[in-house]
Amino acid sequence: QLRAGSSRTVSLVVLDMANPFFTDVARGVEDVVNAASLAMVLCNSDDRPEKEAAHLGLLAEQRVHGVLITPTAELTPQLDALRDRGVPVVLVDRRAPGPHQCAAATDDVLGGRLAAEHLLERGHRRIAFVGGHAALPQIRERHAGVESAVREVPDTELTVLSPGELSVAGGREAAARVIGLPASRRPTAAVCANDLLALGVLQEMVRHGVRVPDEFAIVGYDDIDFAAAAAVPLSSVRKPRQELGRRAAELLLDEGREGHRHEQPVFEPVLVVRESSMVRRD
Ligand code: RIB
Question: For residue 136, what are the domain limits?
Fold first, then answer.
């Protein structure tokens, strides 16, 4: 059921269209909207609030049927403006700030905890969190999960590294900093806030002759397809990427229906262990 005057398009606004995580989310969205005879328009905010706001303004002018969005750190007023015009908005990969909105998210505190517990069980006591972007709530959650797991074990140390971006380049930057630390303080393992960072860490470690996982273990996050295909297959916290997109799109299409109730599903991540974190250290 389309709103009167709206076009047969739904927009997905993502933080980084170069991140395969969002390609998989888009795949899930497209499956659902296509089955409803609608088209998906992809917009990329580059994690910049002003670019996001400009996209949302354009989408309002285009009279899109609805907007699915992984927002930048702040929820911009343009999102409320869209809703005020009657355009349904569903958050993807972000928890809703209140009950009056649909959102599909993952329990990223649990995800961070699973990754850290795995490394602690394998005997690591100096662990790095390669966090990248502290402003994004879904990254802060991962950090909180890692931190709480590490704090529960005595004589452990958590080093937090925040490279400029959540990308392969950001991972290389963080790894170079780890390598530059004195041996007595150098972490022996890292939980990375996403797989792009993890791939960058792996690349830089290998470039410096550091053996992964024997000398440095790595756990990524998202479990994009490239994680398993890496030179050293990456352990990673798997998020239901397509499912997040599908569920969010279903919620969006349901918004116009009689008796619609806002839903906020939170999916559970699972840890997938591969070679990059296999060795025990005791
Ligand atoms: O957008 C940054 C990260 O948040 C992505 O890698 C994905 O994990 C998302 O949750």
Answer: 108-238+271-277
